[in-house]
């Protein structure tokens, strides 16, 4: 589950009238500098809103073990990880490119097709992430030998 899905799941319990203020309070949780601060913010938000929207914050408490690893990454990296839009877009592009091909003669032809599709798709990506050099350096340290 991504953080975006967690937020959407939470906001479905909130009325339209209070959604903007509630979302602002939620943002204090996932933008906290570390796990402890995020947990403390979650408790504060829960306490503030539990009378009005009792079901809204239950999933944060029950899923905290899944959410807390998010805090071990830097703020810059968390902004990229916040959502799965990039991956979903890539998978959608793969489906669109290969929708007419239902059978591949072998594994090698499938791999070549995916490789060529990836080259074609990524050639259209022109926007760079802010502080990409810093982010790439952090990833190389955290995942040494894998990047």
What is the fold's blueprint, element by element?
Layout: H1 3-11, H2 16-30, H3 35-49, H4 58-62, H5 64-67, H6 75-81, H7 85-98, H8 107-122, H9 132-142
Helix pairs in contact: 2-3, 7-8
Key attributes of the depicted protein:
147 residues; mainly alpha; 2 domains; extended
Structure description:
The protein is extended. It folds into 2 domains: 3-71; 85-142, no CATH class. The mean pLDDT is 88. It has helices at residues 3-11, 16-30, 35-49, 58-62, 64-67, 75-81, 85-98, 107-122, 132-142. The protein has 9 helices and no strands. Helix 7 packs across helix 8. The chain has 147 residues and is mainly α. This is Mutator family transposase. One of its GO terms (molecular function) is DNA binding. Required for the transposition of the insertion element. InterPro entries: Transposase_mutator. One of its GO terms (biological process) is DNA transposition.
Task: Tell how many strands the DSSP assignment holds.
Answer: 0
Total domains, how many?
Answer: 2
Residues in helix, % = 55-70%
Largest sheet: none
Q: Report the total helices.
A: 9
- Poorly predicted segments: none
Instruction: Name the helix and strand elements from N-terminus to C-terminus, one letter apiece.
Output: HHHHHHHHH
Q: Report, as a whole number of angstroms, the end-to-end distance.
A: 24 Å
Mean pLDDT score: 88
Q: Nearest-angstrom radius of gyration?
A: 20 Å
Shape verdict: extended
Portion of residues in beta strands equals under 5%
Counting copies of identical and different chains, the oligomeric state is single chain
Structural class label: mainly alpha
InterPro entries: Transposase_mutator
Protein name: Mutator family transposase
Keywords: DNA recombination, DNA-binding, Transposable element, Transposition
Function: Required for the transposition of the insertion element.
